[in-house]
Amino acid sequence: MAMDSPHSWNKPGKVYDGPDAILARVAAFRARTLPKPEWDHFAHLTIGHHYVATYGAEEALERLRNDISRYNEACGVPNSDTRGYHETITAFYVRSIARYLAQVPASMPLLDQVHGLLNDALGSKAIAFDFWSKERLLSTEARRAWLAPDLKPIDALEAWVREAA
Length: 165
What we know:
This protein is mostly helical. Helix content is 54%, strand content 0%. It has one domain. It has helices spanning 19-31, 41-55, 57-74, 87-103, 110-118, 134-137, 140-144, 157-164. α1 crosses α2 (41-55), α2 (41-55) crosses α3 and α2 crosses α4. The longest helix is centred in the middle third of the chain and has 18 residues, at 57-74.
């Protein structure tokens, strides 16, 4: 059973004061100086948005694998079987962010794009649990490598987006 429905995600509202705040968070992440308490879900989405918008989904995922792992190490978080980088979650959100970006005009200002993502169903912290059981998604196997969903096929993301709209 899914932990969340497309109609009950938590919306964060306005997270950033302007585009400079977004770019500063990206820069701090890349420099591995972002304070660990600030590496929350919204920061993950913000960084993911930047990478997907800048590099495209495939290259973004390659870069995120490396950069998230290096950031974790800089913060003293081991990339292990139970902590740190999570391949399935990262790959899923890269796909979700790419889907979101395909829906918005390229001319939309950065601040509006990022706030739109953070307030969109695709940016929900619980969306993955509509596709994976908790046990499967939080497994060592899913952390190490892409593990296909067990509740809904990933191709159902399109229908999920339509239902959530």
